Amino acid sequence: MVERDSKLKVTLPSDREIAMTRYFEAPRELVFEAWTKPEHVRNWWGPRNTTKVVFEAEVRPGGAWRYVILSGEGVEVPFRGVYQEVTPPELLVYTEIYDVAPFNAGDPAVNTATFTEEAGRTLVSVTTVYPTQEVRDFVLTTGMESGAAESYDRLEDLLIELSKRKR
Amino acid sequence: MTPDRLSNTFAALADPTRRAILARLALGQASVTELAAPFQMTMPAVSKHLKVLERAGLIARGREAQWRPRRLDGEPLRDVAEWIEQYRSFWDESFDRLDEYLQEMKKEKEDGRKR
């Protein structure tokens, strides 16, 4: 059996970026469809304990998107942006703004999502470039619950070394 | 950890020389001269990097009066990893759901073809 390797990897390629990669067990046409059509996005976007409120997207260059969820604590979490490049089923470039003051006052982040098919499964890679390091670092503080510390590619070896020394 | 301290840590980690110094210290404590050896850099330049790392709490000084070895302090690194993990968990859960949903979509398409 093929190793599923379905784990999400998060890295920080530069001061202003966050990059994520993950494999999905589906052809990329399907992944692209699930990623772009609001009636599909509403079925997976956001953690499990959230309520869907708004899912709208006009997937063409210049088209706007808006996703709003309610967190488990009942807090509204609104995101919106504009598509810049749309090349089905391989590439999407779109802006993203966390639509809450003061974060919606500045420049938006820019996401580049690529979909690469490898032997029937799809590697999705999303790189987000934030307007400043401060915004990027703020984004890293959002997120719902913490788990075991794992990934920071430049420091991974260092952490392994450290944990060895602690033992 | 406060966001300010986190930004300090991120800023300290942003420089490749400082990451190389940390990587060296992960192998064990070292004197300033030893740390400076691999770099084409003046001692004051190296000391400046060490000060940034010290301020971020990433390294500490040993007590030995003569050579005051620097050693790594792993706590801020673990904090950084933890904050990234928080971001990861949002997407990890979304992507697990996407994977499950894709299997449903696949099945629906197959069923549609059979009909």
Account of the protein in words:
Chain A contains four helices and eight strands. By secondary structure, chain A is α+β, with helices and mostly antiparallel strands. An eight-stranded antiparallel beta sheet of chain A has the order 1-2-8-7-6-5-4-3. The termini of chain A are far apart. By secondary structure, chain B is mostly helical. Chain B has one domain: Winged helix-like DNA-binding domain superfamily/Winged helix DNA-binding domain (Arc Repressor Mutant, subunit A). Chain B has a two-stranded antiparallel ribbon with strand order 1-2. In chain B, helix 1 (3-13) runs antiparallel to helix 4 (43-55). The termini of chain B are far apart.
Per-chain topology:
The complex is a heterodimer of chains A (167) and B (115).
Chain A: E1 9-11, E2 17-24, H1 28-36, H2 38-41, E3 51-57, E4 64-70, E5 76-87, E6 91-98, E7 109-118, E8 121-129, H3 133-141, H4 156-166
Antiparallel strand pairs in A: 1-2, 2-8, 3-4, 4-5, 5-6, 6-7, 7-8
Chain B: H1 3-13, H2 16-26, H3 32-36, H4 43-55, E1 59-61, E2 70-72, H5 75-114
Antiparallel strand pairs in B: 1-2
Uncertain segments of chain B are none
What integer is the average pLDDT of chain A?
A: 80
Number of helices of chain A: 4
Q: Can you summarize the main beta sheet of chain A?
A: 8 strands, antiparallel
Largest beta sheet: strand ordering of chain A = 1-2-8-7-6-5-4-3
**CATH fold title of chain A:** Alpha-D-Glucose-1,6-Bisphosphate, Chain A, domain 4
Question: What fraction strand of chain A?
Answer: 35-45%
